[in-house]
Amino acid sequence: MGKDQNVRLSLQTLKVLEAFLEDPSAELAGADVNRRSGIASGTLYPNLLRLEAAGWLASRWEAIDPSKAGRPRRRLYRLTRTGLARTSEVFASFGRGVTA
Amino acid sequence: MKRQWTDDIARGSIRRAAHRAPPQLAARLEEEWLADLQTRRSPFARLVFAAGCRWAARTIALEFGTPVRIAAPAAAAGPATLCERPRAPSGPPRFIFFLAIAGLHALVIHALASGMTPEVIEKLPPPLRAIFIEQPQPQPVATPTPIGPVLTVPPLVVPPPVIHINQPTDEDHLLRVAAAVPQLSQPAPAGARTVRRVIGGPGAGFPNTEDFYPENLRRLGAQGAATVGVCVDAAGRLTASPTLRQSSGTAQFDASALRLARAGSGHYRATTEDGRAVSSCYPFRVRFQIGR
For a surface tag, which of A84, B163, B240, B260 has the fewest beta carbons within 10 Å of its beta carbon? Predict the structure, then answer.
């Protein structure tokens, strides 16, 4: 339950998904998505949580020791198999194919 | 130094924003946002990022306040319920506001019940009263007496004009007429006779001038008149090509007048001498006028 829910596809959501499609297997932190999509933090993080809640994205903590690294851990997001399939369908419907 | 205090502001803002998010997400969002804050280089970008996080926390709280299952992290056992919708904030400001309103009501009720109202009325300023002020009567102004000698202007006397007209007297006039009469009353030379001559012109069936009006000049509203000389025999036919006697000032009008004169051959009214048609040459005027 909750693994493949429909997501309201706003323009910002599509930009977030497009950022992941540049390398579907890559794990991106919120800052990376922000850099690729240009979406501000106020819109970006609710979108990431929304996609994660719908099962399109999965997230994990960066595997570092914050005390040794001297910085907090980053939250890394990646496209799930379901998310990749649904994203491909969405962009294919716009006439744009995805090589996964 | 500048970066230090802006960084502190941004971090503090992010922490406060994360605590406004649902409790289960607060710690995660705080660590995630603080980590992403490190990637912002300029102080301004950090402040903007922190402001965005405050907005994100508000959106997340509204959207994820009700129980929502999210995909579990890789290390977690399964989906987790986030939180309940947060209750509306309540605190001292609202309570103090309520107390202030209640106190104000109590004060008004006490004032009305204890008879404080007349005192208040007495302290009010007296009503306005209109006072009419008599307007002072204007004092008559004495006519000032002139200072210095009184100047008197003598009446202007204009003499009547004297007009001299050099008009001949009746006697002079009669003398001149008498001198002229013998010259006029001289007899006509022998053999001469008076011929009654009537000059010809365009006759019946002569072409209409409108048919020869240059079209472009008609559209422009131009008008003109040319005088054409023609030589016509007794039957009203041209005996020579028409000539232009007086130009209209426009070459097209002149050419049209000559064409009209040529087209009218056979329709001229011949000149008559004592009622008999004779050949003659005479001018006639061709007018090009709009709306005739």
Answer: B163
